[in-house]
Amino acid sequence: MAFEDRTLVCKDCGKDFIFTAGEQEFYAQKGFTNDPTRCKDDRAKSKQQKMERQTEITCKNCGKTDMVNFKPRNPEDILCNECFMKQRDTVHSAHRSTEPGTDTPETASSEKSDEADKSMEEEKPEATPDNE
Ligand SMILES: [Zn+2]
Ligand SMILES: [Zn+2]
To answer: Of 11, 31, 61, 126, which one has the greatest count of Cβ atoms within 10 A?
Structure first.
């Protein structure tokens, strides 16, 4: 079956664009069943925007490069997703295992932190810096 150039309307800019026979063939080969909804310009634009939103980082822990979806405040001091997850887990378990008394407000889980903060606030004596 031969492909023929078709004129489609870009949903982004509303302009007509040509869905060429070559492109249609390419789409068919890839198994894409949907027509493109955007002209070449807008497709390139959205691709670029996606790339811009991603930032390549080098993990300070394992040295692996990774892509993140945000602009890191400290690009030098960042972990890849994997190490970030690992570190988060470690911090959590370390807090629990190293503290002898597990009932101190500081080690309370974040779910209880509201309550803990409140009780800490109430128990705090009305000390002034002069008392030290
Ligand atoms: Zn367009
Ligand atoms: Zn890492």
So the answer is: 61
